[in-house]
Design a protein that fits this description.
Blueprint lengths: L6 H5 L4 H29 L8 H9 L1 H33 L7 H12 L12 H25 L19 H14 L6 H6 L7 H27 L15 H35 L11 H24 L3 H32 L5 H31 L1
Length: 387
Amino acid sequence: GTGVLGLAGHATGLGYLIAFPAMVIFGFTSTYSGLLLCRCKVDLFAGEGVGGYGDLAATVGGPIFGAFTKFMIVINWYLLMPYYLVASGGSLAVVAPDAPVCGYIWTLMMAILILPPMQFTTLTEVSLLCGASTAAIIIVIFLIIVQLVMDGPEGGSFGANWDAISPDLTLSGFFGGLSSFVFAYQGQDIFCEIISEMREEKDAPKAIGMSYGLMTFVYSITTVLAYGMKGRDVQGFLPDAITGGGLTQFVGVLLFFHILTAYLCIGIPFLNVMHAKFSACGCFGAIHEGSVGARVAWFILSFITVATTYLLAAAFPFFDALQVLLGSLAGAPIVFGWPAMFYLLGCRMKGVAVGCFDLIMCITYFALTLLFGILGTMDAVGYVNEM
């Protein structure tokens, strides 16, 4: 995902003895929390109409807890969209690095370009784009690695300019840096929706294991090579390392396509929730009915969403700070806290015994949620204040 583009920069604030093991550890913990969600969706509550994260919360914790969870997930989706706009502005700047255009204009161009494909109404309609988007980001990462190798290592040798432990590391900075790793692995908030649209839900654990295995491998290789080659001078946004005419433009186009697809994968579920809320009030029909009124309402909601997320992106145009803040406030609860709670409460409801390892992991997830939520957020806010 897009999060990998900022991991090497955050590794400089931690040091390789912390950052490198963290990528593998969070890859495993994120995979396991995804498998806990699968057990809830596919095994514990199969056939009970659990369509999304909020539905699962309502099933195990009641309507109030369900409404709170759905609200937090929708807010997280909404806040992710400005993040993608900020990243997309960087990708367009890569396409035309010498253009006399500021970052706000690049981001505005992305907001305009995203509006037409936001008229898709289901994730199934953009499934082919998702596969192509994954290939695009892998190609981008490969080209970045090639560029770093061709430039040669800073200081004359690999690892000459990195730190085992960053000399400026603080407690809040420790959790703030790790929050970027949590954010990079985030995705659990749409797992239930994705599983619901799979042909065979029973294949979900296999899909999660394979995707997170590939993700962990790519993230680790990219961060180790980028930090080892550039050390403390590594770019906070890795595509900035690309310098080479046509290659720069090619990387920018691929990155733009990947980010556009990521925006759609968040924006479409968000619009479905908003559209359903208004249609339930009788303002217009449901989107699946395909009426003119429903389609017009979808367009209006999509326009408002794109416009307001652009304003947020313009007000908060810091790629790496957004990554830390979202990882702390939303990533930790979504990746760790909620899946553990869903699983424990679901097992209690169904009378299923919780294994010893599962219990240890769930307790660990609760502790991580608390620590990242407090100390990681403090670090992100302090970082923004210094800008």
